């Protein structure tokens, strides 16, 4: 104590040195995001958005089966809680390091080819070749998981298709009794004009356009039109993006016609990011909308206990296939997306991961999952199951479309190209540009994104 | 006493510095080391890393995203060649000038002047309302304005009730709509700053000017404003910097749309970095936003010392 008083300086410095030294010497704990992979753990990540438990329940069930067959292995489920874009980002960040990469990831076919190009995923052809189930997949869905190098990088889980939902009572009042099936774009316009004339206050048709609806505009809207013409966005043979095609301009013209003649939603609704919500929970149930080009999943909004429960939905709402422009073969068009299971290049347990896929993809398991999640199956064996066919009034119709479906050219630049499409549709719908001028701006945007050498004029 | 001699010594720069206290000061700094290390790792580290990123082609997805290479000024060149970038710069300036520099400061000053001579309860009531708008989180404020202005929103409800035509500002003039929302939200800050500054101005000055026959406008221009110059400059700088980085409000109200008509730099940056995964490019845009803010701050600071000298 006396020491402290007589020689405060010295002692205090000693104490400080000691304390400071100790503090510096404390090692920073490593902040590991994921537990390290011992040889006995298999890690499976998936998207968890909202309060939906279907996916996690299903995976938990499969994991329990798997652990029974392999008692020495623990299956760790890694839910990534995020909406669409954030999910891609989280997943990519995890795959980019071997410390965090899971053994199996849940990949949207929309982003799959981008992730392949980035080097995040490994090809699984050698595994698919030995897998008897692979033949059960519709060929078109197999190409959806095929990258530019011709190799397959995922196992499709389910898909979705699109068609024209329509209110049969409203159409009947306008002079189009059920069953209504348009053969050409003109048939659609004729029906829409009749609705506008005879039923004031009813929105004749909704086709998504404009930037606010994002990918819905590109896929449910514009591409449903474009792929019904003879043009495409991307030429698979030459591996180039197609500029200024006739079909592109025609599709924009169709959108322009709909908005010029006020056959679509009021412009303020059309440019509202929440339009899809309005369509399924307000307009359709309240008889304010006659037709909508939309996806198979919107029926989920009217189920029992759903936000906009509507028991009569399937009595009132019927489905028609989306026709091609002038009724060209095959006479219908639909677009598909959907998810797949893929294996990160940095996965530490690829063999185990594959065994887990085989377990998951058993007919029994997949049928249960498809029914629980209202999915459109990508496999013949499941489509043939009576309990799948009877799981909802629309599942048969939408599964039938899969054979003729088109997948988006979901290459790395697609998200940006899709954005350029949205901008083009928006400029014609608000009347700021003619279809030709909007297509010109689109061409400039695409050249900007991929470079001139990656583009071509329509043959 | 010691402090006096110290300052004297410091003023006299010819005197050689005493070494021993320096060494002692260094030793005394040792306890700070852990804090400095942590700050370096978690604050300066990411800042430096993001500056480095701006000069690379780091991307989350697409061709070769797993490899990152140094590309020099490519990102900046791309930005200068992109019309969308210039659109974002223009909108950012409009948004900052209209809602930050003019809107918030003029309205804040007006409120502060009016409240100066008002009854206490008026002051309390106004203060509560204005400050209430300020403490609401940005996202909530954005959503409030969206529900007010959107097609089926309350403003059109009121207009319909009065048999007036509907408005669609969110579609027709989105940048003005978000500017209004930002004025609504940020005026409180300017008002509080100016109220505090005005309370420092002695009323005698005003009164003597009044006796000399100066009207209220003249008194404001010749007496109040010159006395408030420093506060005005400070407040302008702070509101400018705050407004430049507004993201949530615009994102919720318009998402940068329709098209790109309200896509200011922060929204453009977000789209590039997180919708398209172009992290390097997005960071380069962020760096330019920082530069714009820095230039604005410098401009204000250059004006300030002049006032001080008078």
UniProtKB/TrEMBL annotation, chain A:
Highest taxon of source: Bacteria
Xref: Pfam families: SBP_bac_1 (PF01547)
Stretches assigned to coiled coil: none
SUPFAM superfamilies for the chain: Periplasmic binding protein-like II
Record-given protein name: Sugar ABC transporter substrate-binding protein
Automatic annotation (TrEMBL), chain B:
Segments of skewed composition (Basic and acidic residues): 8-19
Membrane topology type: Multi-pass membrane protein
Subcellular location: Cell membrane
Record domain ABC transmembrane type-1: where: 90-300
One GO BP annotation of this record: transmembrane transport
Presence of the UniProt keyword Cell membrane in the record: yes
Pfam family, one: BPD_transp_1
UniProt key word Membrane: yes
Gene3D superfamilies: MetI-like
GO cellular component: plasma membrane
Chief place of localization: membrane
Transmembrane intervals: 29-52, 85-115, 122-146, 166-184, 232-253, 273-301
Source organism, top-level taxon: Bacteria
Keywords: Cell membrane, Membrane, Transmembrane, Transmembrane helix, Transport
PROSITE patterns membership: ABC_TM1 (PS50928)
Disordered, as annotated region: 1-24
PANTHER family attached to this UniProt entry: BLR7065 PROTEIN, SPERMIDINE_PUTRESCINE TRANSPORT SYSTEM PERMEASE PROTEIN
Family the entry assigns: Belongs to the binding-protein-dependent transport system permease family.
Descriptive protein name: Amino acid ABC transporter permease
Annotated source species: Luteipulveratus mongoliensis
């Amino acid at each position: 104590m006396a020491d402290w008083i007589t020689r405060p300086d010295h002692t205090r410095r000693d104490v400080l040195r000691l304390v400071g030294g100790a503090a510096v010497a404390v090692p920073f704990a490593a902040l590991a995001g994921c537990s390290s992979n011992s040889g006995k753990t298999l890690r499976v990540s998936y998207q968890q958005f909202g309060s939906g438990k279907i996916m996690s329940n299903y995976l938990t069930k499969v994991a329990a089966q798997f652990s029974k067959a392999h008692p020495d292995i623990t299956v760790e489920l890694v839910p990534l809680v995020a909406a669409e874009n954030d999910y891609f980002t989280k997943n990519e960040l995890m795959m980019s390091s071997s410390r965090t990469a899971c053994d199996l990831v849940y990949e949207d076919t929309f982003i799959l080819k981008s992730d392949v190009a980035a080097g995040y995923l490994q090809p699984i052809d050698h595994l698919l070749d030995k897998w008897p189930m692979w033949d059960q997949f519709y060929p078109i869905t197999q190409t959806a998981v095929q990258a530019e190098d011709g190799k397959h990088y995922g196992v499709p889980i389910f898909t979705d298709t699109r068609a024209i939902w329509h209110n049969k009572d409203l159409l009947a009042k306008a002079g189009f009794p059920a069953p209504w099936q348009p053969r050409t774009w003109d048939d659609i316009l004729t029906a829409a004009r009749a609705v506008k004339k005879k039923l004031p206050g009813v929105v004749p048709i909704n086709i998504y356009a404009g930037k606010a609806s994002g990918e819905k505009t590109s896929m449910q809207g514009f591409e449903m039109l474009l792929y019904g013409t003879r043009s495409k966005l991307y030429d698979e043979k030459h591996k180039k993006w197609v500029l200024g095609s006739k079909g592109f301009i025609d599709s924009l013209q169709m959108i322009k016609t709909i908005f010029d003649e006020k056959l679509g939603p009021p412009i303020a609704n059309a440019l509202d990011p929440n339009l899809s919500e309005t369509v399924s929970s307000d307009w359709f149930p309240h008889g304010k909308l006659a037709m909508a080009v939309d996806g198979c999943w919107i029926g989920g909004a009217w189920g029992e206990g759903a936000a906009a429960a509507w028991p009569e939905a399937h009595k009132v709402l019927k489905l028609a296939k989306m026709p091609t422009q002038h009724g060209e073969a095959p006479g219908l068009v639909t677009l598909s997306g959907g998810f797949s299971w893929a294996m990160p290049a940095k996965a530490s347990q690829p063999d185990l991961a594959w065994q887990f896929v085989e377990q998951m993809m058993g007919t029994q398991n997949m049928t249960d999952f498809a029914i629980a999640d209202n999915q459109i199956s990508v496999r013949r064996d499941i489509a043939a199951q009576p309990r799948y066919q009877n799981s909802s009034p629309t599942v048969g119709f939408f599964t039938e479309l899969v054979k003729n479906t088109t997948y988006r050219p979901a290459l790395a630049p697609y998200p940006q190209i899709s954005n350029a499409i949205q901008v083009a549709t928006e400029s014609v719908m608000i009347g700021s540009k003619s279809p030709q001028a909007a297509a010109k701006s689109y061409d400039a945007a695409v050249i900007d994104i991929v470079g001139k050498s990656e583009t071509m004029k329509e043959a | 006493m010691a402090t006096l001699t110290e300052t004297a010594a410091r003023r006299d720069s010819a005197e050689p510095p005493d070494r021993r206290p320096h060494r002692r000061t260094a030793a005394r700094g040792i306890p700070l080391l852990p804090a400095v290390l942590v700050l370096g790792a978690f604050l300066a580290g990411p800042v430096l890393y993001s500056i480095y990123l701006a000069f690379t082609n780091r991307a989350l997805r697409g061709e070769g995203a797993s490899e990152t290479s140094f590309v020099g000024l490519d990102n900046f060149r791309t930005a200068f060649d992109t019309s969308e970038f210039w659109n974002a710069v223009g909108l950012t300036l409009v948004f900052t000038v209209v809602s930050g520099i003019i809107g918030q400061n003029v309205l804040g000053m007006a409120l502060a002047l009016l409240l100066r001579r008002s009854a206490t309860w008026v002051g309390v009531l106004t203060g509560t309302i204005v400050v209430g708008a300020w403490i609401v989180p940005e996202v909530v404020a954005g959503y409030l304005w969206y529900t007010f202005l959107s097609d089926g929103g309350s403003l059109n409800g009121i207009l319909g009730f009065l048999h007036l035509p509907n408005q669609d500002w969110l579609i027709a003039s989105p940048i003005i709509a978000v500017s209004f929302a930002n004025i609504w939200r940020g005026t409180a800050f300017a008002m509080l700053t100016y109220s505090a500054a005005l309370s420092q101005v002695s009323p005698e000055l005003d009164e003597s000017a009044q006796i000399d026959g100066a009207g209220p406008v003249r008194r404001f221009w010749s007496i109040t404003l010159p006395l408030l110059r420093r506060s005005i400059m400070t407040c302008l700088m702070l509101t400018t910097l705050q407004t430049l980085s507004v993201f949530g409000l615009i994102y919720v109200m318009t998402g940068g749309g329709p098209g790109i008509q309200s896509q200011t730099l922060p929204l453009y940056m977000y789209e590039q970095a997180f919708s398209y995964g172009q992290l390097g490019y997005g960071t380069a845009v962020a760096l330019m936003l920082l530069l714009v803010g820095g230039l604005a701050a410098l401009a204000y600071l250059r004006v300030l010392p002049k006032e001080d000298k008078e």
